[in-house]
Design goal:
There is one protein chain. The protein is mainly beta. It contains no helices and 11 strands. The model has no long low-confidence stretch (mean pLDDT 97).
């Protein structure tokens, strides 16, 4: 059974950093393309970052390039999103997603505010 569990969200001041984790079970993250999405209040769910399953190539939304980094730990079977230089507009619920099969975690709230 595929499960994705996000953690690491919270309240942070502008300019601060957070690292989100997505612990996977029921499959091996290194074999699948994994995504981080976010959904701000009243808005749709947008792709933030992607890491390819076989090549480990990464792509980012223009709004987070140079600030966010997606990575994975194959031993821990976990995908991460390191978020630096956070801005108030980064406030959203962040979701982990496995592209194949469209599996989702429950989300973790990130709030950037002074």
């Amino acid at each position: 059974q595929v499960q994705l569990v996000e953690s690491g969200g919270g309240l942070v001041q502008p300019g601060g950093s957070l690292r989100l984790s997505c612990a996977a079970s029921g499959f091996t993250v290194s074999s699948y393309t994994m995504n981080w999405y976010r959904q701000a209040p009243g808005k749709g769910r947008d792709l933030v970052a992607r890491i390819a399953g076989t090549t480990s190539g990464t792509t980012y939304a223009d709004s987070v390039k140079g600030r966010f980094t997606i990575s994975r730990d194959n031993v821990k079977n976990t995908v991460y999103l390191q978020m630096n230089s956070l801005k108030p507009e980064d406030t959203a619920v962040y979701f982990c997603n496995r592209l194949l099969g469209n599996y989702w975690g429950q989300g973790t709230q990130v709030t950037v505010s002074s």
